[in-house]
Protein 1
Amino acid sequence: MGRSFNASQPIGRYLRAAGLSVNQLYHLTGISYRTLSNYLAGRTAILPRHIQILCDALDCLPSDLLHGQVVGDVVCEQKNDYTPLYG
């Protein structure tokens, strides 16, 4: 069995729901283990170029992963709710 991971971030909850390990997600997406670990710990916001890759692997929507995160000039507060930061 693989190491446990932080499921307090949305990405962790979807990873757990998919029954995948971080290593399996790395192999599915090509996103480095370190980057995935940073996303899971909430140390780093998910990069825009990784959002759709992760959503495809975890069978979710971008808003599911980005709750509360700043992406470009918007912050995603709730599923399908993008609030402009400037405006």
Protein 2
Amino acid sequence: MRNAGYFILGLLVQLPSILTALVCIIIAAVRWKRHPRISLLLILSLSWITVQSLIFDAIFFFAPQWLIDQGKTSSLDTFYTVTGVTYNVMAALALALLLVAVFSLRMPSQRTV
């Protein structure tokens, strides 16, 4: 098995993004009474993105070594393709949810001519 220190290092690289998401989640929770629907969507999307990132980091780190240990090296290409597509589709859905939160319930601007 590869050195788990590399896995920890990979998590530390993501620490700024995780902390930023956590701060945004806290701000959304504080503003919940003012904008409950938007806060809910924002908290869900940021939580989804953060958890997904952590889970897929673990998958990308540990699964290839497990496949190699099982003697299934021919499956590595399929693993990376399927996992990469799955990650990106899920990230796109989470970002779409974030965009819905950002742009929902907007009032049209008043134009003066």
Protein 3
Amino acid sequence: MGSARCCTVHPLALSSGTRHPPTSSGAQIVGQVFHVTQVVSWDQPFVSLPDREAAALYLRGRGLSEREAERRAAELTVPMTVTKRGLLIWARART
């Protein structure tokens, strides 16, 4: 069974220190094919990770092996907050 990752940041990005600004490019892409009627976007704190153990557990929940999660968690500066960004797009077929 596969997992959907269309709208999430890959867990390895947590340790990169890179902050990506929210974008409406998803709505622009959808708008090339459909008539977009509404877009709801978010860019908010999602979860607080108080220590490396919590960070490793978070990464395990996103599919990393125990060994890789612990290795990546050791590279993080904690405590940290994970921010969730995304778009929910309502669209209909062009007439």
